[in-house]
Amino acid sequence: MPVDPENIQRGNILGVGVSAINMKLALEIIDQWLEKRELRYVCVTGVHGIMESQRNENLRRIHNTAGLVTPDGMPLVWLLKYAGHRRVGRVYGPDLMLAVIERSLEIRYKHFLYGATDLALSRLEANLKRRFPGIQIAGVYSPPFRPLTKKEDKQVVDMINDSGADIVWVGLSTPKQERWMADHRDRIRSPVLIGVGAAFDFHAGIKRQAPRFIQRSGFEWLFRLAMEPRRLWKRYLSNNSAFLFLITCQKARLRRYEID
């Protein structure tokens, strides 16, 4: 029996409604949106996204308006399981991207790649075509490291719409990709927008992914910190300790968080 996306429960993690799903459920829901041409966006969220949502009310609303907020990190999976959501599994952005692309080959859905650098996009496109013969990549675009003008933004929207893409993969950092999807959702005709962060660089071979056993352990952040200490030290060391403190307060009912 097909899953009803509207009935997927969400766990309240510091006021962000994280979808109580696993990879199988995520794929089934995305399939339904594509088949029905429903306009949705997906936030692939870990501790970083949750903590950014504490600092910005609008970002929290963007998450809570998303079609899905997938548990990208193991701490979110553990918290959802602790809350009684037994079917939950990690829905990791790089894995979700590969799984959706593989699933889409038979129906020949078209993909648009938005984000990263020209070099990363070139390598990503080549690697995806090598791994998935027959993949339909309708277009790619690497945005500049500055806000687009209104004219440039309209050109990008027109490019995506003219491409006929069914899925737009957004490879920007959090919170840029979430804001971009929310801002453009009503202007882009592609049914599904999915923000997958560093997945572009991982699948392009520019950055190393943590081994699977480290991913499952919940210490992937430590691996990434070792790979990019100058860029990530503040994010992980400050965010992780603050997250643990706030979760403890939420569980002890010292602070109340509402999903709205």
User: Which consecutive residue ranges, at least 5 long each, have pLDDT under 50?
Assistant: none
Q: How far do the termini sit from each other?
A: 30 Å
Q: Please report the number of helical segments.
A: 12
Count all strands and give the number. Answer: 8
Helical proportion, percent range:
40-55%
Describe the structure.
The radius of gyration is 18 Å and the shape is globular. It is of the alpha/beta class. It has 12 helices and 8 strands.
Structural key phrases:
two-stranded antiparallel sheet; alpha/beta; 260 residues; 12 helices
Give the topology, please:
Elements: E1 10-13, E2 16-19, H1 23-36, E3 40-45, H2 47-55, H3 57-65, E4 68-71, H4 74-82, H5 93-104, E5 110-115, H6 118-131, E6 136-141, H7 150-163, E7 167-171, H8 176-184, E8 192-195, H9 199-204, H10 212-217, H11 220-227, H12 229-251
Parallel strand pairs: 3-4, 3-8, 5-6, 5-7, 7-8
Antiparallel strand pairs: 1-2
